[in-house]
């Protein structure tokens, strides 16, 4: 894939999620036509409860922070500690970043990065609304992170890396940003069977977290090539139940599943 093709994909994803931020759509991983319903906090909470968040977690963030766009709960595997610095890739309206802020405490820091200006503006407004002094949101691409080398303890991401046209570069940047001994805690979509060519080429399915997904073996190889160790990828077969609603009647659940992805940057 050429640099120009990469940029075209980013523009399509940015436009789709910018529309979500402006209209507060929710209802699936991403805004494919016919997939997302108008914003409703009850709908977003129901979706989030279905992918592993507790009622306490969904109630703990400012209204409008949870858009119901995830495919898992990276908090569940992140094992965040007080005082840590956490980076959230594709932070959207701030849902996971605000939950992480509770875990790292006032002496910790959470940095959210998103390439969609409307999402960054929304997240910043939510941070002010919720009084989150230890959370900041930066505009940037996850392939070119606006953070210093070896500056974060943990990196989270929720259903975003599949949208990148250069996932290997995302993992190289994650390795750069992590301190030695730092870790990845990611929820994302993986392929469990080869996607039909027609699905791969459909823009709506790309922005719907389907067409850009990679296989477990491909992702593991990218992580290893970037320098990560202790790589663990665990597809969740039960996720197919909510995935089938992303593109009703298309059978996408036969080809993809949500997975937890963990890896560590070696300390030496």
Quick structural gist:
The protein has helices spanning 3-23, 41-50, 55-59, 75-78, 95-104, 117-130, 167-177, 197-200, 203-207, 216-226, 240-243, and strands at 85-89, 109-114, 135-139, 152-158, 178-191, 214-215, 229-236, 256-264. It is 37% helix and 21% strand. It has a single domain, classed as Rossmann fold (3-Layer(aba) Sandwich), CATH 3.40.50.150.
Describe the protein in words.
- This protein has a single domain (3-264), classed as Rossmann fold (3-Layer(aba) Sandwich), CATH 3.40.50.150.
- 37% of the residues lie in helices and 21% in strands.
- It has eleven helices and eight strands.
- The chain has helices spanning 3-23, 41-50, 55-59, 75-78, 95-104, 117-130, 167-177, 197-200, 203-207, 216-226, 240-243; strands spanning 85-89, 109-114, 135-139, 152-158, 178-191, 214-215, 229-236, 256-264.
- Strands 1, 2, 3, 4, 5, 6, 7 and 8 form an eight-stranded mixed beta sheet that branches.
- Helix 1 packs across helix 6 and helix 7 (167-177) packs across helix 10 (216-226).
